[in-house]
Amino acid sequence: MSIDSWVPAALCAGVLGWVGPHVIARLPASKDAGPETPGYRSISDVHWLSAWLSLAAIVLVTVVNFAVPARLLPAWVILCGAGIWLAYVDWRTQLLPTRIIVPVSVAVFAAVAVESWLASDWRILLRAVIASLIAFGVFWLFWWVGELWRAGGFGYGDVRFAAPLGLVLGSGSGWAVLVGLYIGIILGAIAGLVMKARGQGGSFALGPWLLLGAVLAPVVT
């Protein structure tokens, strides 16, 4: 772990996490929201939420800093700092807003492209794009099969979220994207079984577990 790289990474991720509630509060209502789904403004108005999201983003980027070269940290900072917004929103609403996922994906792609350029190694960007397409494709297949079995059983927001996850994971290693997705799905499945055992059946948030799986993947690969 390099302190020189960790300090700016943690600071930037923390700032991103801190502004999360302000971004969430300005999201328009989702057409996929059910009658009992809390509104974005209401879930953003939580005491100390900015501090909690900031702390969570710092913890995530700290874990990544143990295993990722400093030159690849900028994209991870964006994913950890803004990805924690998505994890929180998904946890509270079982929705992953496209209005956050798309800008995050563009920002992550730009960061990976700059990292590749600075390293004079375009294989970084190529590997990241291929990994992103694979991640998106795998989750789209899950969604498609899920729709055949039970409509609405697998959220399309998870499919979209897989794209930026694949970008950052692929920038470091081709294997990391497969490991990260596997960890995220397994953690999500365990969480779902625990909820079902406690009588809390129905839909549950997969996004937080996908983000955690992505963060853990570089550590174990």
Description:
The chain is an all-alpha fold and 221 residues long. It has one domain. It is built from nine helices and no strands. Helix 1 packs antiparallel against helix 3, helix 1 runs parallel beside helix 4 and helix 3 packs across helix 4. The longest helix is centred in the middle third of the chain and has 27 residues. The chain is globular, with a radius of gyration of 17 Å.
Identify the quaternary structure here.
single chain
User: What fraction strand?
Assistant: under 5%
Through-space gap between termini: 16 Å
The total of helices stands at: 9
What is the radius of gyration computed over CA atoms, rounded to a whole number of angstroms?
17 Å
Total number of domains = 1
Unreliable stretches, pLDDT < 50, 5 or more residues? none
Largest sheet: none
So what's the overall shape?
Answer: globular
**Secondary-structure element sequence?**
HHHHHHHHH
Mean pLDDT: 92
Write a brief caption for the model:
This protein has 221 residues and is mainly alpha-helical.
Notable traits:
single chain; mainly alpha; 9 helices; globular
Give the SSE layout.
Elements: H1 3-25, H2 40-44, H3 49-65, H4 73-93, H5 98-118, H6 123-149, H7 156-172, H8 174-197, H9 207-220
Helix pairs in contact: 1-3, 1-4, 3-4, 3-9, 4-5, 4-9, 5-6, 5-7, 6-7, 6-8, 7-8, 7-9, 8-9
